[in-house]
Amino acid sequence: MHGFALCFAGAVLAAATAAMAAGCGPAAQPLRLHPENPHYFLFRGKPAVLITSGEHYGAVLNLDFDYVRYLDEIQARGLNLTRTFSGVYREIPASFGITGNTLAPLPNRYVSPWARSAAPGYFDGGNKFDLSKWDEAYFARLKDFLSQASKRGIVVELSLFCPLYDDALWKANPMNAANNVNGVGDLKKDDVHTLKNGRLLEFQVAAAKKLVTEVNAFDNVYFEICNEPYFGGVTLEWQKRIADAILEAEAALPRKHLIAQNIANGSCRIQGPNPAVSIFNFHYCSPPDAVAMNYGLKRVIADDETGFKGSADVPYRPDAWDFLLAGGAVYSNLDYSFTRDNFDGTAEPKAPGGGGRNLRKQLAILKAFIEGFDFIRMAPDNSCIKGGVPDKATARALVEPGKQYAVFVRGAAKVDLVLDLPAASYRAEWVSTLTGAVEKAEKFDHGGGPKTLSSPPCKDEIALRVVR
Question: How far is CA 292 from CA 159, 203, 300, 327, in A?
Fold first, then answer.
């Protein structure tokens, strides 16, 4: 692996310069688990949840995407997260029926950590890749993206790898032997992300270490090992090797960043979690059963991607409320109103999902609602709900007993909610999840036991804040 020796000092110095220019400074600690409640984050000295409705992950690798305008829109809507793919994987315009897919750059508009060689013959034009050399222009773009996000208080989830879902995607990938000059990648697509991929593993580990090293100075980034590794033959052993590569790269570096692992679509109970992993990502996690199943692990649970339920704001908005009130800390909606040539997110969202400015505003209401509590003192506990939830409706509660209660009711036009409250004086507010307005408020002295709180009329969902 001598061909992949990394100049740590030079890379870190360059990244530190970029980070200081972004305003995070050399003393800023990266995003980390909150030391008092590791189900949540600590970011720039404050407890944090991460909520967004963002583009389809091609902001850096697609040269046609204006990420400054994109990040301006995320910031303007009060959101604080985006997800981006590293560039070792790309899609093609026909992939998944996505209109204006940002992960599917036009010919000669795709950049990767790997540099182009002098040899022609890449999949859609231009020269093949040299997996032993780095594209410094790509890394400048990646670091500027992180810097621009940092200035806006936005955290970036950097997904290092992604499975090859079909042969067409493998045909377009730089790791395919047909697309590189290194004599590696003469494999079936389902062997690419395994420990039985020949010398390709060396290049993958080197790429992971290079990416991690280059962005070490930034406080607003965490690393996902691999997007959706339950497809395309990705093995747990290979994922552990990449996680180890992240740890190895950061061992001599000043900052240690969080690592995320994508576990499943929907929900499942995690068995034998990798101790290096701090964030467990689930996709399409509705209902949010994955949170309760894995809450005892005392790490962050994330709903990391949504979609395939139409283009309307429902169900994505109430799904987000359900997930956060169940004890999750990340909700990352996949927003199809951002396209390859629409950076402001004003395109009409089309299949396979939704999005748009209206939804982004509503997700910001959820973020503000959670941040209105001392939420690191809270935990999911529906046992305080003693009745009043109509048939076919659901209610979830995030609670610090006797002090603060956050409740979300879904599927009801009105509710007479019965909460079990200790003796104290309280203030209760019913909050619209569509507008953020307090639609009903009351103060009351309570002698302890069941207390009925009646909501105003609501359109299928409403939130309740009760504070001592």
Answer: 25, 38, 12, 8
Check pLDDT > 60 for residue 5: no
Core vs surface per residue 163-197: b (16+ CB within 10 A) or e: bbbeeebbebbbbbeebbbbebbebebebbbbeeb
Q: 264 pairs with which residues across the strands?
A: 282
**Distance, CA of 317 to CA of 367 (rounded, Å):** 12
CA dihedral in degrees (383, 387, 389, 391; nearest 10)?
110
Reported as half-sphere exposure (CB side, CA atoms, 13 A), residue 415 has a value of 30
What angle do helix axes 8-22 and 136-151 make, rounded to 10 degrees?
Answer: 30
| Residue 2's pLDDT band (cuts 50, 70, 90) | very low
Domain boundary among 322, 346, 375: 375
Alpha helices in 122-163 (DSSP H): 136-151
Any idea what DSSP says for residue 407? E
Cα–Cα nearest to 212, from 237, 234, 236, 245: 245
- Based on the domain organization, do 195 and 92 belong to the same domain? yes
The reported pLDDT for the residue numbered 351 is 79
Residue 173 has pLDDT above 60, yes or no: yes
Instruction: Identify whether residues 344 and 422 lie together within a single domain.
Output: no
- Return all residues near 271 (Cβ < 8 A) that are at least 6 apart: none
Same domain, 389 and 371: no
Sequence-distant (≥ 6) Cβ neighbours of residue 361 within 8 angstroms: 77, 78
Distance CA 418, CA 435 (A): 25
Q: Which residues of 317-338 are buried (b: 16+ CB within 10 A; e: fewer)?
A: bbbbbbbbbbbbbbbbbbbbbb
Residue 240, Cβ neighbours under 10 Å: how many?
Answer: 16
Assign residue 149 the CATH number of its domain. 3.20.20.80
Task: Write the pLDDT tens digit of every residue in 352-368.
Answer: 999 999 999 999 999 99
416 and 275 in a single domain? The answer is no
Range of the domain at 239: 2-375
CB 41 within 8 A of CB 81: no
Burial of 2 (0-12, 13-18, 19+ CB in 10 A): exposed
Which amino acid belongs to residue 455? S
- Residue 402 has what DSSP assignment? T
pLDDT confidence tier of residue 459, bands split at 50, 70 and 90: confident
Which tens digits make up the pLDDT trace of 253-264? 999 999 999 999
| Selection from 154, 38, 79 nearest residue 370 by Cα | 79
Confidence band for 35, pLDDT divided at 50, 70 and 90: very high
If asked whether residues 424 and 317 sit together in one domain, one would say: no
Q: Do 199 and 132 meet the contact criterion of CB atoms below 8 Å apart?
A: no
